[in-house]
Write a structure and sequence with these properties.
By secondary structure, the chain is mainly α. Helix content is about 70%, strand content about 5%. The chain has a two-stranded antiparallel sheet with strand order 1-2.
């Protein structure tokens, strides 16, 4: 850790302590340095250190044990919902679990988008699809725009909870989308997104749900096949090596 500037000391201490936890330099169960030690390390008062520790204890990141010290707590699912903790740094689910979440959330919410979408929403989706066509040979930019398309559908629901949850877990969604496009290419995204826009234009909720379900389910199946293929390839490599 490094010594801090004098402005906003409380927030700076909080951010430094949080960084030690989310990067696993202080893994769960670790007894963190004492207030006196942190005071020397960071060059601030004990009052400032104590305030940051208490704040982290309230968030569920630290546990203060009288007579023993302060310890890093296990990162529970409840902590994942705290927007102050970037999910990118925490133990995070794999692509398949993210897809299962999306199958529940996006299939369930798209009927709201059909009901509440505006002409501006449609224009935003069409613009996103056009960018995807332009970037179909650029995996990174295509994946970014693919995610923007799905986030735009969430915004079309006008439901603040749906929208906020997506942005809380946006790091997971970004990484998952990048892995999907890297593995499966761009054709499916281009096809299904065009069909989904048509269903939204026609305000056909049933068709929109069927398309979203088919889109995500097909992705799940193709990712599963890729995983099985990878396992088989590794097994073959191991067998060749043994021989």
């Amino acid at each position: 850790m490094k010594q801090l500037k004098r402005n906003n000391l409380s927030n700076q201490v909080f951010e430094q302590l949080k960084e030690e936890i989310i990067t696993k330099r202080w893994p769960p169960g670790t007894k963190i340095p004492s207030e006196n030690e942190l005071t020397k390390m960071l060059g601030v008062s004990r009052v400032t250190i104590r305030g940051a520790i208490q704040r982290m204890a309230i968030l569920g990141l630290l546990e203060i044990r009288q007579g023993e010290g302060t310890f890093v707590k296990e990162l529970t699912p409840g902590i994942y919902m705290n927007s102050l903790i970037p999910l990118f740094y925490l133990d995070s689910p794999g692509t398949m679990e993210v897809l299962e979440y999306r199958k529940v959330m996006e299939v369930g919410s798209i009927s709201l988008a059909v009901e509440k979408r505006t002409e501006e929403d449609l224009k935003k989706l069409e613009k996103s699809l056009e960018k995807m066509k332009i970037y179909k040979h650029d995996i990174s930019k295509f994946a970014e725009e693919d995610l923007n398309f799905h986030l735009a559908i969430a915004e079309s629901t006008r439901n603040s909870i749906i929208i906020k949850i997506n942005y809380i877990i946006i790091d997971l969604l970004k990484r998952s989308m990048s892995d999907i496009v890297q593995s499966l290419g761009t054709a499916d995204g281009l096809y299904y997104h065009q069909e989904i826009i048509t269903a939204l234009k026609e305000r056909d909720a049933l068709k929109a749900q069927e398309l979203m379900k088919e889109h995500i389910q097909r992705t799940i199946q193709r990712i599963s096949q890729e995983m099985l293929r990878d396992v088989a390839d590794k097994a073959n490599e191991a067998e060749c090596y043994c021989w």
